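BUG: 3D viewer hangs when loading the predicted structure for this chain

Environment: internal workstation, default settings.
Expected: structure renders.
Actual: progress bar stalls at 90%.

Input used:
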Amino acid sequence: AYTDFFTEREKDIIKEIEKGFTNGSISENLNISKYTVETHRKNIFKKSKQHNTKDLLNFCKRKGII
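Structure tokens produced before the viewer hung:
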């Protein structure tokens, strides 16, 4: 049920967040602008209804997203 919860790009961002990268590093790693990373991040938190990184990662692990 949660396999298509996030877009492929959002999943890429979540994996980078899990590795502990900053928005700046994520933007370099994925070759996108920092503002794009911030937008994805905002959408990820809104969609998952989580309020911090730790809760987001726990949510993703519980749902089998990562």
